[in-house]
Amino acid sequence: MSEQVEAKWYVIHTYSGYEKKVKTTLEKLVENRGLQDMITEIQVPTEDVVEVKDGKTKTVQHKKFPSYVFVKMIYNEEIWYIVRNTRGVTGFVGPNANRPLPLTEDDLVKMGIGSYASTNVDYEVGDMIKITKGPFADNVCKVESIDAEKGQVTVRISMFGRETPVSVDFSQVVKFD
Question: I need a labelling partner for 105 at 20 to 30 A (CA). Which of 5, 8, 27, 40 fits?
């Protein structure tokens, strides 16, 4: 086989609450069977959410897509069978359960999956930005850090008289002039 097949992202549907178990099980299967060339990455995307309970703010991680696991793999019948028969997996997402469709680059960027190496932002650490969407919309704040891999920028927002670090997706902010 002389041609190199590129790994693509697929979505797996799992039982509710089994996302991390499925990820861990798949990672062990990949390691034990030596499938690192076939299954290159497994993700359960999460986001930091600030919760206020009894007057106290707390940053908690929530799953962006509950009941779904994202797998970057080279599709073939053997890999499909291994993933499909992993405990907690109900199937692949797509119109045909026997031949799942990979996600497009556009889908990946919109969902915040995979690498953001090609994403260019027009601000840097120390610049002022304005949050345009989400619960912190219309806040103007200073950029503390930029995580290109996750597609997020960390800023400090003043809540209840205290500065609180918050991670916000690139799509939710614009440079403030």
Answer: 27
Q: Determine whether 6 is exposed, middle or buried from the number of CB atoms within 10 Å of its CB (0-12, 13-18, 19+).
A: exposed
Residue in the block written with tokens 């907690």: 88
pLDDT digits (tens, 9 = 90+) for 121-139: 788 888 899 988 888 888 8
Q: Give the pairing of strands 68-73 and 152-159.
A: unpaired
Q: Which residues on neighbouring strands pair with residue 58, listed in sequence order?
A: 51
Q: How confident is the model at residue 92 (pLDDT cuts 50, 70, 90)?
A: very high
Helices and strands of the chain, counted as H and E runs: 3, 11
Query: What are phi and psi for residue 76, nearest 5 degrees?
Result: -155, 175
Spatial CA neighbour of 30 closest among 112, 22, 159: 22
Q: Provide the token pair at 175.
A: 């440079």
Residue with tokens 């916000």: 168
Distance (Å, whole) CA 42 – CA 24: 9
